[in-house]
Specification:
The N and C termini lie far apart (125 Å). The chain is mainly alpha-helical. It contains 1 helix and no strands. Helices cover 96% and strands 0% of the residues.
């Protein structure tokens, strides 16, 4: 192998290394972009989860209040039905 062939081979290796470095740079840019998209999606997911938790808390409050009202209203309705029945059949 003569000097010219060695020099050509070294130049080819250098050029391939530059090309590989460019590809790595592009790949890193894509990975950063994908990570940013992922981070935004995680933030949106967190906000949605917080909102869902608040809605569940409100639902639990509404159900609790409805149970309290139900406990009061049903006996009153039963007494009213008994009273109306007594008035009708007396």
């Amino acid at each position: 192998m003569n000097d010219k062939e060695q020099i050509d081979l070294l130049k080819e290796i250098r050029d391939n290394q530059k090309l590989q470095l460019e590809h790595q740079t592009e790949s890193l840019a894509i990975q950063k972009e994908q990570f940013e998209i992922f981070r935004k999606q995680m933030e949106q997911t967190r906000r949605l989860q917080d909102r869902a938790e608040k809605l569940q808390d409100k639902s639990a409050q509404i159900i609790g209040n409805a149970r309290k009202v139900f406990i009061i209203v049903v006996p009153v309705l039963i007494l009213l039905i008994i009273y109306v029945s007594w008035l009708l059949f007396r």
